[in-house]
Design a protein that fits this description.
351 residues, alpha/beta, OB fold (Dihydrolipoamide Acetyltransferase, E2P), 5-stranded mixed beta barrel, flat, binds guanosine-5'-triphosphate, binds zinc ion, cytoplasm, EC 3.6.1.-
Length: 351
């Protein structure tokens, strides 16, 4: 570690603050969390650190502990200690598995979630919608990236199909992940102070895109690693990449296991929920009920059956999760019933 930290350097690890910490503390970003402690990046190098005692207190909300993506203030020492977690600008989280209900922070301070899908056999609007619903409420902006533009004749139709289906304003980019000129369109999401994560199924082209984004710098680092004992540096190497465009790309294993938590709003389907408000019966099951606005929209081709099915699937999953969440909260409170996140609607005909 050098003496003075530069704000310029911190911008390249995604920091957007104005004032450096006082009292001899330094600023760094959490890039990985292990049982044995944290791995931090200070804009220059990666090093290990321990949380200060107050983070280990029993009963502390786990969300208050340092998490991947956090900017933390550290006190020097061997090892250095994390004393403060700076306020988060965004939080990607999920309900943690386990006996007690807990929210687990997957990554903090992520500005853009790049949802990567191939225009080939990987193409699935339903899966894209699922990823988009995961970012709802996080503060991070989702960006849909379609790879393999060079490979598929039907690329234009698929892109158009998606544009018509997703909420207006969702950025969609079709690219060839191997071509730097094509990938350059994504640089707007990776400027100094920006942090992006890349999600998508295996084979979608995440590594290919990452390599192209990194350009020659990544290749240089890659060849160094090849002479290294592989594995040992892998986490460090992958966890936070400083991009030539000035921003950074964070790669955390947690991002690949995102699940719906029961708290999503499904804002993405606001039009369907508005449509259902027009059914004759307030508790319409949208099956064979008379006066069902959803069936009418399906019949008229205004609503696509595929999108309707995906909405139902995500809604059921959300309700299942919400029930689980409620029973966990009740157990935690010792048997007292909780307010239901999504209560049943009254069975009555509308006026
Ligand atoms: N032609 C073409 N091929 C691509 C493109 N993007 C990825 N590929 C190819 O698709 C295959 C899978 O790409 P990867 O980058 O390894 O995919 P990944 O998402 O990192 O996959 P995992 O590591 O399994 O998660 C490779 O053979 C790439 O060369 C693209 O835009 N155009
Ligand atoms: Zn209905």
């Amino acid at each position: 570690m050098t003496d003075a930290q530069s704000i310029e350097q911190l911008r390249h690890i995604g920091w957007r603050g104005q004032a450096l910490p006082a009292d001899g503390r330094r600023l760094a970003r959490v890039v990985a969390q292990h049982r044995a402690g944290y791995e931090l990046h200070d804009g220059e190098q990666v090093f290990g650190a321990q949380p200060a005692g107050h983070f280990l207190k029993r009963g502390l909300d786990p969300a208050e502990r340092p998490a991947v993506g956090d900017f933390v203030e550290i006190e020097p020492g061997k090892p250095p200690h994390i004393v403060i977690v700076q306020p988060r600008r965004t939080v990607l989280s999920r309900a943690a598995a386990g006996e007690r209900y807990e929210r687990q922070v997957i990554a903090a301070n992520i500005d853009y979630v790049l949802v990567l899908t191939g225009l080939d056999g990987d193409f699935s609007p339903a899966r894209i919608e699922r990823y988009l619903s995961l970012t709802e409420g996080s503060g991070a902006q989702p960006v849909v990236v379609l790879s393999k533009l060079d490979q598929r004749a039907e690329a234009a139709e698929r892109t158009a199909e998606l544009r018509a289906r997703l909420p207006a304003g969702t950025p969609i980019h079709a690219i060839n992940g191997k071509d730097p000129a094509s990938v350059a369109a994504l640089a707007v999401y990776m400027q100094p102070g920006d942090s992006a994560v890349l999600v998508g199924s295996s084979g979608a082209g995440k590594s290919t895109l990452t390599n192209t984004l990194m350009g020659s710098e990544r290749m240089a680092t890659g060849s160094v690693r090849d002479h290294d004992s592989r594995g040992r540096h892998t986490t460090t190497y992958r966890a936070l990449l400083q991009l030539p465009s000035g921003g950074c790309l964070i790669d955390t294993p947690g991002m690949r296991e995102l699940k719906l938590t029961g708290e999503e709003n499904l804002d993405l389907f606001a039009d369907i929920e508005a449509l259902a408000e027009n059914c004759r019966f307030a508790d319409c099951g949208h099956g064979s009920e008379p006066g069902c606005a959803v069936q009418e929209a399906l019949d008229e081709g205004v609503l696509s059956p595929e999108r309707w099915r995906n909405y139902l699937k995500l809604r059921d999953e959300r309700e299942e999760q919400a029930t689980l969440l409620e029973s966990r909260l009740r157990r935690q409170r010792g048997g007292r019933p909780a307010a239901k996140p999504h209560g049943p609607r009254g069975s009555r005909e509308r006026e």
